[in-house]
Amino acid sequence: MTAGPEPMSEAARAALNRELSELRGERAKVAATLDDADEPGDRADQADELQRATEAERLDARIEEIEGRLREASAAGPPSNGTIGVGSTVGVRFGDGTESTLHIGELADADDPALVTVDSPLGRALLGHAAGDSVAYATPLGRTTAVVLSVGAGGGS
C-alpha cells in the first residue's frame, strides 16, 4: 500500500458495511451463548465455552479491522480520477505481453476472477499509480512488471 490512507469506492465501502453488519449480528449471537454462570460445569462445557469465546475474539478483531479501514477511507476521501485505488478498474499489460482488465478490491471474491485484492503483491504495486506507469511486483516465479494502460472507477469490493 501507499504511505497514506487509501481511498475507497462507494461500492467497496458498501461491501465492507454489509460485512460489518453481518459480523455484528454474528457477534451478538455468539455473545448471547457465552455463559455467565459461576460454576464452570464439566470439561465439555468448558471447552465449548472456550471455543465460543475464541470465536467472539475473532469476530471482534475482524469488526475492528473493518471499522479501522472505513475510518481510514473516510480520511482519505474518494479515489481520485486517474489514480488507482480500491474500487478502480485497471487495464494492465503484463511483462509477457498479455493484457487484462482487473478490479482492485478489499475482499477476495471467488465469483470475480478479475479481482485483485489490495493485500496481494500486484494490488499493492498498483495502488496510487496512473495510466502509463510501470510497476514491479513479486510472483511465485520471481519479480515481474506490469504497465498500467487505463484507470477507471469500478464497482469492485
Automatic annotation (TrEMBL):
<keyword id="KW-0648">Protein biosynthesis</keyword>
<dbReference type="Pfam" id="PF03449">
    <property type="entry name" value="GreA_GreB_N"/>
</dbReference>
<keyword id="KW-0805">Transcription regulation</keyword>
<feature type="domain" description="Transcription elongation factor GreA/GreB N-terminal">
    <location>
        <begin position="7"/>
        <end position="73"/>
    </location>
</feature>
<dbReference type="Pfam" id="PF01272">
    <property type="entry name" value="GreA_GreB"/>
</dbReference>
<keyword id="KW-0251">Elongation factor</keyword>
<protein>
    <submittedName>
        <fullName>Transcription elongation factor GreA</fullName>
    </submittedName>
</protein>
<dbReference type="InterPro" id="IPR036805">
    <property type="entry name" value="Tscrpt_elong_fac_GreA/B_N_sf"/>
</dbReference>
<dbReference type="InterPro" id="IPR023459">
    <property type="entry name" value="Tscrpt_elong_fac_GreA/B_fam"/>
</dbReference>
<feature type="coiled-coil region">
    <location>
        <begin position="13"/>
        <end position="76"/>
    </location>
</feature>
<dbReference type="GO" id="GO:0003746">
    <property type="term" value="F:translation elongation factor activity"/>
</dbReference>
<keyword id="KW-0804">Transcription</keyword>
<dbReference type="InterPro" id="IPR022691">
    <property type="entry name" value="Tscrpt_elong_fac_GreA/B_N"/>
</dbReference>
<keyword id="KW-0175">Coiled coil</keyword>
<dbReference type="InterPro" id="IPR001437">
    <property type="entry name" value="Tscrpt_elong_fac_GreA/B_C"/>
</dbReference>
<dbReference type="InterPro" id="IPR036953">
    <property type="entry name" value="GreA/GreB_C_sf"/>
</dbReference>
<feature type="domain" description="Transcription elongation factor GreA/GreB C-terminal">
    <location>
        <begin position="80"/>
        <end position="151"/>
    </location>
</feature>
